[in-house]
């Protein structure tokens, strides 16, 4: 840009930033998605963004309406062998156990405290609800955030021996950056706990708390020492999964997103909901087919199904029928994690 | 700015806009709040904004954390003789009545259809719930939005003979503009229906749907003709009033606002919640004490209390005790509506 030379350096830089900001509606592609191999997945993302930002085309979308939603577990970060939030709950249960000697004899606590993985793998939804109640409720929201923050600072994933917040997929961070650079507002729409994810969403994904939609616990407005607090009650308030993802999107955003990314049966309705709108829409599913760099589970190539992040045959059929793009971690991603060489 | 002369005019303008945007953290006061008389209320707003935007002071707030929340009914627009949404419900009831001949004999429908204002003034909360159920539910969200949009386009307020969306307070629009010009994100936090307010919030207040927090109806994810829809069920999902306002703020925003504006007992907890945070906080209540230009109700100067937008003596006591600023519509506002001469 010629006028740079005529400006003091800082003003030139300011103006340059501004030009990018103000012309951000135009399509920004420069070196987008460097961790993606060339192929139909990368192409689908780039072509979608080109369409919705091209004012002269018929699929142009106003910047205010450019919304993209991302599932978290298995879509933005690792969800195996168990969801990170389940790992947190288990750790918390161990921490609280000395105050609850009766847990040693009572399921589902007994299995967790004995580290009985076989029993835990068979836990029902109501088993997990009991565990969530004692580990996620009974304190103020602020206290809970502190507990999560402390755990994240010290806990490590059993396979990669790194903090859970480092197990995020670099290619997906690039997609979020690319969409944001093209005027999109990015949201996390997770079946996981909204309050849990908000603790690190800004730092890890560049997504502020108000753009995290998740499952939530009922809270009660109360006074402690004359000060108002929000107390977490042992009751689920909102289940942001399956149809709940479409409901949550409408409740929190009030607009129909143009792009959505998921990886499991809990994301199907979110993708359907988006596709039911007019114009260009991007629906993508991450398939875990890389046992070497990450994990392999799901329907393709005879991979085993999993109860954690289920990508069922039925979901694959839906994807094919509806033209959703399935991302192969193995083939589409040059690099998965930042810590890879 | 010297460098303007060196740039083509459009680039200069672009850069100028950018400088304002990028330096938006600094305090922007130029001709702020023109419809406010000089006095403690205007002073409180200006002094608050000065404090939170002054990097050298001890009360500086990062732009990402600058959140301001506004009640709607009685704070941003007229709520007498009845909340506009109640007027909508009544109109809708009349419209649907021919399909429900039994309503003529059944309360609370009977009173509404007979326009029995005395009976309606005594309606209980459950009477209103019955009316809300038949007027606000049983259709998809999209259909409901269409019904609201149509009503807003034709309905007129009985006293001012103007569309309800023109009965907004100019001084409060100026406060929202002033806060936004100083890096604040403005939210509506209303006891009214979230879906109702979202229909016009962008047009009337410059507030996008995702920044409207309100009471909401339970929705269900369903398929109609193979297409997914969100069906409105006859059940309240979330009551965004009293303690619910603090809960709603936490649920939807996940940050504690620095400024909040209300006008009735349903806003008390929102103001308490905000004040319980550190640093500079601005808590304001609009008092309706201008029977000539608008209405007069509330505790001051022997004004009658009202069941619509109750400003109780107890709330006034709280305001005094906690140092909340009470805005006098009569004395603080030069002009109330845009349509005034």
Model description:
The structure is a homodimer. The first copy, chain A, has about 350 residues and is an alpha/beta fold. In chain A, about 40% of the residues lie in helices and about 15% in strands. Chain A has helices at about 10-20, 40-55, 85-95, 110-115, 115-120, 125-135, 140-155, 170-180, 195-200, 200-205, 245-250, 270-275, 315-320, 330, and strands spanning about 65-70, 185-195, 210-225, 225-240, 260, 280-290, 295, 325-330. In chain A, strands 1, 2, 3, 4, 5, 6, 7 and 8 form an 8-stranded mixed sheet that branches. In chain A, β5, α12 and β6 form a beta-alpha-beta unit. In chain A, α3 (about 85-95) crosses α6 (about 125-135) and α11 (about 245-250) packs across α12. The relative contact order of chain A is 0.15. Residues about 1-25 of chain A have low confidence and may be disordered. The interface of A and B includes residues 212 and 251 of A.
Largest sheet of chain A: 8 strands, mixed
Number of helices of chain A: 14
Tertiary shape of chain A:
globular
Mean pLDDT of chain A: 91
Described by its quaternary structure, the protein is: homodimer
Our Rg estimate of chain A from Cα atoms comes to: 22 Å
Question: What share of the residues of chain A does DSSP label as strand, in percent?
Answer: 15-25%
Please give the alpha-carbon distance between the first and last residues of chain A.
Answer: 36 Å
Work out the largest interface and the residue count of each chain: A-B, 44 and 43 residues
Supply the helix-strand structural class of chain A. alpha/beta
Number of strands of chain A: 8
Helix content of chain A: 25-40%
The run of helices and strands of chain A is: HHEHHHHHHEHHEEHEHEEHEH
Low-confidence stretches of chain A: 1-26
């Amino acid at each position: 840009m010629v006028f740079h030379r005529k400006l003091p350096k800082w003003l030139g830089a300011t103006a340059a930033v501004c030009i990018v900001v103000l012309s951000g509606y135009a399509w920004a592609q420069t070196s987008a998605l460097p961790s993606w191999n060339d192929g139909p997945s990368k192409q689908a993302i780039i072509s979608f963004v080109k369409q919705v930002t091209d004012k002269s085309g018929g699929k142009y979308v106003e910047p205010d309406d450019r919304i993209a939603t991302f599932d978290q577990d298995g879509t933005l970060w690792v969800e195996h062998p168990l969801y990170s939030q389940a790992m947190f709950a288990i750790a918390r249960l161990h921490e609280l156990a000395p105050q609850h000697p009766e847990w040693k004899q009572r399921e589902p606590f007994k299995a967790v405290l004995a580290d009985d993985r076989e029993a835990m793998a068979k836990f029902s939804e109501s088993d997990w609800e009991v565990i969530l109640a004692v580990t996620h409720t009974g304190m103020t929201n602020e206290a809970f955030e502190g507990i999560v923050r402390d755990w994240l600072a010290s806990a490590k994933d059993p396979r990669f021996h790194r903090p859970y917040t480092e197990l995020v997929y670099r290619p997906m961070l690039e997609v979020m950056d690319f969409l944001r650079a093209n005027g999109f507002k990015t949201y996390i729409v997770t079946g996981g706990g909204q309050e849990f994810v908000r603790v690190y969403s800004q730092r890890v994904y560049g997504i502020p708390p108000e753009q995290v939609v998740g499952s939530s616990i009922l809270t009660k407005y109360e006074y402690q020492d004359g000060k108002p607090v929000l107390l977490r009650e042992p009751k689920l308030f909102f289940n942001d999964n399956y149809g709940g993802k479409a409901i949550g999107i409408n409740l929190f955003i009030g607009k129909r997103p143009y792009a959505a990314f998921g990886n499991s049966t809990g994301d199907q309705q979110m993708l359907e909901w988006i596709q039911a709108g007019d114009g260009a829409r991007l629906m993508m599913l991450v398939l875990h087919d890389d046992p070497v760099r990450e994990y392999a589970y799901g329907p393709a190539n005879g991979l085993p199904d999993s109860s954690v992040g289920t990508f069922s045959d039925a979901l694959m059929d839906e994807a094919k029928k509806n033209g959703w793009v399935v991302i192969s971690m193995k083939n589409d991603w040059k690099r998965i994690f930042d810590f890879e060489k």
